[in-house]
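Allow me, if you will, to draw on your knowledge of protein folds for a short while. I have a record of one protein: its chain in single-letter code and its fold written as discrete structure tokens. I should value your view on which stretches of the chain appear to form regular backbone elements. Thank you for your consideration; the sequence and its tokens are set out here:
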Amino acid sequence: MKKMLLNPIQRKFWMDYLLKFPSAEYNDPNYTFIVRGDLSITDLKKAYQLITLEYFPMHSTVQVEDGKPYFCLDEDENKFPFIFFGEEEDTSDAAIKELITKYVYQPFDLQREYPCRFYVIQRGKDYFLFHMFHHLVMDGQTLQIFFHRLSVIYNELIRGEYRFVDQTGMMETFNASFEREYLRTKEENTNYWKNYLQDIPSFLSVPRFSFENSEKENKENISYAFDLGHDLYEKAKYFCKEQATTHFRLYANVWALTLSKVLNVNRLLLDHTLSMRSKNQEELLGVFINNLPLKYDFQDENCTFYDIVQFSNINRKEEKLHQY
């Protein structure tokens, strides 16, 4: 049986899948396109079939051997997840949206089904192409490659010029290189975070609000609206631009300083979101995001707020080098 070991990132997704199954948490958001005019359903269906055969993880289930997860190719080439719906011409857009939404949150059973599904909804001369992937095989970069290749295959089929391109060698080369790099940096990153966290207390006692036993008191409503106001917001905006930082980081610094005073601690960590997108990926929402702790040390009495901002900016750059 043709098989391929999941790479280190895929193995993390696989472990999370095992812990949360059944869950649609790692269903990549649906990608739906509307095509108007002439569309060959026969050739489109064939294109979906061929692209899953070229990229065989999409034509595989995940099986565990000797404790390791593998993509295991299904030998039945005619089996692939294509579903066609023929709708009446007067079917409303709302009804089409409802039909699509119905399938968005269906979990993948990766040990029994492929990690992708393709739907085509025809309404007269309108065709809705609806795609679902498990994050195990799809991300923002891979998605662009997938749709480009799908378009190429479809047009080659129309012209009768299709040539099969086996992606296995490319994937194996990439995975081997990625595995080597991952193992090389794993020890370095582990040591970095051990040193980073060693002086930070693992637990802080947080003061709690106390309420009188009164029916008039809403005990759950202990959140407060926060508004800088126009003038202060404009000053904060200018400060962020001047210091090459963000509003989020500015507020995080203020929050850290406040907590240190309220809790009477010199060192603490705040969890923060780190965007790992490059400039050409800025429009890919929801991808390349990591959560990392940011350390604050307020032992130096001469430390100014400006120093705190500078520290968090420098620290952020260092974290990017050890983000895994």
DSSP finds eight helices and nine strands in the chain. Helices lie at 8-20, 41-54, 93-104, 140-159, 168-197, 230-243, 247-263, 305-320.
